[in-house]
């Protein structure tokens, strides 16, 4: 049952990504990308990662889509009668080569859901799960790590967002245009 | 090969997303679509990371409600940070694309190259 659900969702996600790749109209590609993000958010829920799913749905599907829409409002939306783009064979061969090489390595990864996999059984995972509540009084371990154990990481993330906001303002400032 | 689809399905999907993302970045002439391709590649990496933390029968990492096994919270934290950084990156890239459009009057890579040669 679980496997069937994964199958349907992952097929949807991959086909949405292919639609992004081959739809010629930018607006259609952006809509396909938003659907792709929501599909991935549901996969995160199946992987028991509700925090990541919420962020992906709100930020990945929401904010990113709005940014893309703002960008095509400020630029052009190339028209044309063809629905799909022509296949660019050079890049297609390189991408297929990458997929082929990486697929040969998949077998050496641990099975999905294996409780003895290096990540699930690592010392650090156990430490966080055992100590997050006694040490920080926060039940959600993800929040505890994000705000307490890796607080400086989150501070750095905030600095990145600030830098990006300033960069957008500097780049788009009208007076600088010559 | 087919048995990978029943045991490593998410890894296979994220590798396919790497391929599609790389194809869009390299093959699409439109600059906005290149940025969408970059986002697809990123999501492939996020899916890979979140999958590594999954444990069969594990509960979401919220302790104190009687569950015994939990999925690993660490990949979730790293990916939460990465998603926000990815959006910042997209915003800066789109701002640069808008400036390029103002300067060259096109978003098509080939047209921009021609304009550069003419200059």
From TrEMBL, chain A:
Transmembrane spans: 6-23, 30-47, 53-76, 88-109, 155-172
The keyword Heme appears for this protein: no
InterPro entries referenced in this protein's UniProt entry, alphabetically: CPA3_Na-H_Antiporter_A, MrpA_C/MbhD, MrpA_C/MbhE, Nuo/plastoQ_OxRdtase_6_NuoJ
Main subcellular location of this protein, as a coarse class: membrane
Pfam families: MbhD, MbhE
Topology within the bilayer: Multi-pass membrane protein
Keyword Lipid metabolism: no
Domain MrpA C-terminal/MbhD: 12-75
GO cellular component: plasma membrane
Record key words, sorted: Cell membrane, Membrane, Transmembrane, Transmembrane helix, Transport
Localization (cell): Cell membrane
Every MrpA C-terminal/MbhE domain range: 121-174
Name this polypeptide is given: Cation:proton antiporter
UniProt source species: Haloferax marisrubri
From TrEMBL, chain B:
Membrane keyword on record: yes
Gene Ontology terms: cellular component: membrane
Compartment(s) of residence: Membrane
Transmembrane segments: 6-24, 36-55, 75-98
Major place of residence: membrane
Keywords associated with the record: Membrane, Transmembrane, Transmembrane helix
Membrane disposition: Multi-pass membrane protein
Entry keyword Protein biosynthesis: no
NCBIfam families with a match to the protein in the record: PRK07375.1-6, PRK07375.2-3
PANTHER family assigned to the protein according to its UniProt record, in alphabetical order: ANTIPORTER SUBUNIT MNHC2-RELATED (PTHR34583), MULTISUBUNIT SODIUM_HYDROGEN ANTIPORTER, MNHC SUBUNIT (PTHR34583:SF3)
Protein name: Cation:proton antiporter
Upper taxonomic lineage: Archaea, Methanobacteriati, Methanobacteriota, Stenosarchaea group, Halobacteria
């Amino acid at each position: 049952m679980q496997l069937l659900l994964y199958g349907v969702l992952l097929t949807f996600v991959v086909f949405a990504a292919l639609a992004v790749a081959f739809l010629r109209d930018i607006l259609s590609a952006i809509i396909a990308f938003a659907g792709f993000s929501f599909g991935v958010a549901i996969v995160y829920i199946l992987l028991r990662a509700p925090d990541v799913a919420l962020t992906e749905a709100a930020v990945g599907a929401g904010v990113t889509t709005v940014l893309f829409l703002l960008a095509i409002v400020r630029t052009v939306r190339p028209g044309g009668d063809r629905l799909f783009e022509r296949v660019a064979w050079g890049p297609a061969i390189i991408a297929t080569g990458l997929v082929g090489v990486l697929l040969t390595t998949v077998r050496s990864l641990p099975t999905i859901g294996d409780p003895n996999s290096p990540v699930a059984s690592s010392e650090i995972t156990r430490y966080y799960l055992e100590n997050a509540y006694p040490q920080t009084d926060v039940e959600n371990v993800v929040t505890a790590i994000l705000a307490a154990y890796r607080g400086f990481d989150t501070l750095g993330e905030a600095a990145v967002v600030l830098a990006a906001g300033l960069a957008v303002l500097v780049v788009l400032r009208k007076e600088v245009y010559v | 090969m087919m048995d990978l689809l029943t045991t490593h399905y998410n890894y296979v999907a994220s590798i396919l997303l790497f391929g599609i993302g790389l194809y869009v970045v390299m093959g699409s002439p439109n600059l906005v679509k290149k940025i969408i391709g970059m986002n697809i590649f990123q999501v492939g990496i996020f899916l890979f990371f979140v999958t590594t933390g999954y444990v069969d029968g594990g509960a979401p990492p919220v302790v104190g409600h009687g569950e015994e096994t939990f999925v690993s919270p660490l990949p979730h934290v790293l990916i939460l940070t990465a998603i926000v950084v990815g959006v910042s990156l997209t915003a800066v890239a789109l701002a640069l694309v808008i400036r390029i459009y103002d300067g060259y009057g096109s978003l098509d890579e080939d047209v921009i190259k021609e304009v550069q040669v003419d200059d």
